[in-house]
Amino acid sequence: MNTPFQRRLIHLAVAGACGILSTHAHAQAGAPATAGAEPGDARQAGQEATPADPATAPVPPSSTVVVSGSRIAARGFTQPTPTTSLTAADFDKAAKPNMFESLVELPALQGSTGRTTNTFSTSSGIQGLSSLSLRGLGTIRTLTLLDGQRVVGANVTGITDVSQFPQLLVKRVDVVTGGASASYGSDAIGGVVNFITDKKFAGFKANVSGGMTKYDDDKSGTLQAAWGKGFVNGRLHVTASGEFTKQNGIDSPGFGEVGANGRTWYNNPALQESTRAMQAAGAPRYRSIVHAQHVQYAKYGLITAGPLRGTAFGPGGTPYPFEYGTDCVGNFCIGGDRSGSVGAGTNLAMNFKRQVAYGRVSWDLDGNNEIYATVNWAQVKSAFSPNPGAAKQGNLSIRCDNAFLPASVAAGCAAGYPDGVMPVGTANAQFPANINVHPTRTQRRFVVGADGRFALLGRDWSYDAYAEHGENTTVIHVRDITLNRRYNFAIDAVRDPATGQVVCRSAEARAAGCQPVNIFGDVPIDLAGWHYIAPRNGPMQHTDSSQDVASININGELAQGWAGPVSMAFGAEYRREKYAVHGDPYGAGVAYESPYGPSHPFDPTLSATGDNWFAGNYHNGQGSFNVKEAYVELNIPFLKSATWGEANLNIADREEKYSTAGHARAWKIGATWKTPVDGLRLRAVSSADVRAPNLSELYAAMTVTNQAVNNAQGSSIQIQQRNVGNPNLKPEKARNNSFGVVLSQPGWARNASLSVDYFDIKVKNVISSLNPQQEVDLCYGGNQEVCAAVSIDGPAGTNYVLAQSFNFASLHTRGVDIEGAWRVNMGDYGMPGSVTLRGLATRTIHAISDPGVPGTTPSEGAGNMTGATPKWKAMLSQSWDGLLGGKAGLTLTERWISSGVFNNEYIECQTNCPLPTAAHPTIYDNHMPGAVYIDLGGTWNFSKGVTAYFKVDNLADRDPVLVPQTNLSLALNPAIYDAVGRTYRAGVRMTF
Fold first, then answer.
1. In this predicted model, what pLDDT tens digit does every residue of 644-685 receive, in sequence order?
2. Whole-prediction pTM value?
3. From 3.40.1400.10, 2.60.40.2470, 2.60.40.10, 2.40.170.20, which CATH number describes the 18-210+233-252+371-385+441-477+543-693+729-769+805-897+929-991 domain?
4. Between the CA atoms of 721, 725, 731 and 737, what dihedral angle is there, to the nearest 10 degrees?
């Protein structure tokens, strides 16, 4: 550890002030249920009729257990898969406007997406998704369930959007930090997150809150209400809830080295790349600099080469000498004129609105069986700006007779450029509006089912059967964005010799309505020209996804063994997923025009095959698959001895048949041993887990994004990254091993619990693709197979890299989870209330990704601070409840991220550096600092049913750590660092 404070944090974690463990054990010690749960306790049973105070209620001997890491329900069953549970009380203390924002702070959750991630993206389609990722393995390898049931994906990748869940009725969330494919099916390689609702909620409750940051932005408001009541002597039960959340986001400050709304931490960081000659002389390839100035463009235009190099354009188009700054190497200088920088223009947080309506109706057929139906409607809207203007990095070819050039520049051009063309770069700050993206996701989900108990061969069995139909419609609109070819036609302006008017040079473009546009200087764009290059009907993608599921699960006791009951769960499921996506004609191509809305006349000067927009070129596609699967799981107690303790074996097998990917199999074998040592239990599990290719990977319509890559000479080139699906993909296969030690309130520490679990996950046949720079580097390195997908030597606007997924990669991650809790009754010390110390920590030892392509090497992601997996991620909390006569409570939380590196594959050196390679570049300084965030919250009970609360996140207003890039960008990693700053929230909860 790098600081004494960090060392103390880890010491506390290991000492037991770190985690969430057994409620049953807490019950014996009088700890509240909010301290969490360890698999196998009564509070995780999910039983509908719970005592008013579960913290003190005894567990009936006949209670059965249903935990998210297993389908088994049996007396005394302690399943081996580590599971962390958070209750509604835990989320109340976190006081977030969205339950998702609380979950992503758990150390095991790494790489999740939310409204502060992907704010730079125009075309990815995942903007605004609140999706969970365990172990940094990605959202597609974490299975997120609602009441143990699948939920229709909010994206063609199949990932769910937690913001579409009915959150006020959630009474518990189980986070299974291990492979669970044998129990729940595909996608559970990283684990399972299961949201469990209160199905028999009775009464009324509501939550009203508001918040804002220190900088008077990202203002938010939340309104939630739920009602439930029994009718017909309790046989008919109706539950309904409605939720609304609005977060205004943090808007773009525009151009230049400036932070949003008074934030002072942005300083134009960049990775400056040295020349080949400098590298041959022993200089590192990359050097991290601040106050960087890009030399390929200026705010209102810059001539980038030739005799007029360094001529920029100012007010009214007046030319002036551009200030380059100092230490100019490659694409960057330090200092100089930074007014045209675009990095700060990305939104720090999206404008975000969620609306959810949920209802459940159940009818008790008798005392043991019910039938039910649920309906959920949810809509999540986002809005953000990925960047200001539309920077052209010195790749515009401007002719010397351009009508908008000042006379002095036109004369110098004619004299100094023999071919009559000079290169110009611009940030296009003249544009009247920034590019803005508007995703809207609407879910409609219907479930009918039955659950209950029945007797068979003298034994009790339980069942749960349901059928689900879910639909999700995603519409993404991009506005104020340009069509590349129209832009090029519009800026190539000349004077009509007959009329003297400025017109587009191309007669074909003029016939199609071309209007000239002046990009030289701070000159407002004529609206006719703006509407020509940026038509109001901007890029559009309309996606319809649907999911149909029929499932049945049965469990019970097969026989009474000598060490306890032998229990079994078994079941079958059928699932069908399909999607269809349509883009606008300019993006998808005129031959595949969208059926949504009226047809638009197609400009013959544009490409009929699409990809005409600066970004957001959405293409058309469709696909479907179905899967039939069955599983069986057994729990076999095999040891029960006063001398040796108690032990059980848990085994499961699942067989799956995909219509696309063929056969897949998942299994697990695990065991737990309650040792004769007081409070000590050991657990271990090994599982084979699978993830079948999703609809996007199989059938994704081509999407095109604009990127910049460096060629063999180190020059930056704008390219199109073209992503397309592969219908020949096979399932990913994982091997997941874990071993844990659990110390649950021994006699010598009745108020303390601790668990330490080691995990090791290997995934092969990983569906993956290389990034554009990797492909370009491999191509220049001589890999002809990769070169077939690379074209970067053509004219501007024609260069591209084709990105298609294959089963050639592998992943390997291993580490340690530490969880614990310690509770003190302050009455023993003459003070009021009780204090609970809790926390969680995850140490990622390795997170290795192997592209599996000849010429590439594995890379280590643990501690890579540009990724999602720091070496240490910890969360500690100290709660003092029952203050001031039981009316008040305070909670202090520390979130810690350890320091790391920019990239583990970089070689750090200052002089005498080895020659860099594509796999191992050299860098001057490879260190990235960590971060500690402190949150403070409190409650005040006005009456039995009314509680006011407040919360301050990032109390010290710690600035985010900047992550420099090879191009000027926002240079943040919100997957690791807080990008928003100090945030205040307050609200009132009511329960009647």
1. 999 999 999 999 999 999 999 999 999 999 999 999 999 999
2. 0.88
3. 2.40.170.20
4. 20
